[in-house]
Amino acid sequence: MNAPASLRSPTTRLYQPRVETAPFVRAFIMRDTRACALQGAQLLNRFPASAHCVLTWFLEGEAELLSDAGGQQGLVLSGCVACGCQAQPLASRNRGDTHVFMAMFYPDAFQALFGIDLAPLQNTFLPAHDILPPRGRALVDAVAAAASHAERQALVERCVMEHAQHHTLPAWLRIRRMGSRITLGMASKMLGIGPRQLQRLAVREAGANLQTLNRLRRGERSFLTAQRRYLKGQPLDWADHALDCDYADQSHMARECKAQTGRTPARLARDVVCEEADWVYRLDFADDDDAPPSRCA
What we know:
Order of helices and strands: EEEEEEEEEHEHHHHHHHHHH
Strand content: 15-25%
Shape: globular
CATH topology of the largest domain: Jelly Rolls
CATH superfamily of the largest domain: Jelly Rolls
Structural class: alpha+beta
């Protein structure tokens, strides 16, 4: 049954950061469901597990958490909320029309910019005003009051540039760029600390232990690689894809995909095509800052 002509489809846009801020910001996302009359399952938002820290501004409307790793089911999200690394997939339901702006930060960059311990943010959503320092709270208010998404992005990037000179992230940036290929021993040498101290530091400054971060980054790269091949109409051999993405085999990839998205690769590929709730999976992210070098022949 066709929707009335007066209704429109939800609008979702991905904005890439400037080159100067790309080591800090993964992407900006806008989602607008106003005047779309979404119903039932269309009101859902499904998100994969993610290593990123995200500031989400509910410019209009609110949403309710349905599932997450931190036991916050039923939490109503409104205003500006911050979340850290999410080790499991999560879902929310819009409570009517919503208009949302999101800024996705690399976790170590978020910690460096705002000087907060990321451990309490893992698998958690908190009001941004409750955890951010004064400059972060000022940014939250300015973005909420901005007249356009371009202005909102500019405000976030201005904040990054004002403080980036003090936080060049040399060690964590190198660790990110090595992706899942980096071992605990390699990371320890790069940071000049012991393995146990590194794991404690990683949770505080990067949002999760090194193994979890590597697993989540590998999963993101695997999905984006498969997505691009699919959009180009290129055939995809799941077994070869698993090896190219540094999984032990196809079964290993399928298990991790289910752990991070709640679905097998084949089921996810089918759902993304037709499920409104999977809008985030349809976004065409640019190559991320921590893409590893190509596999040697």
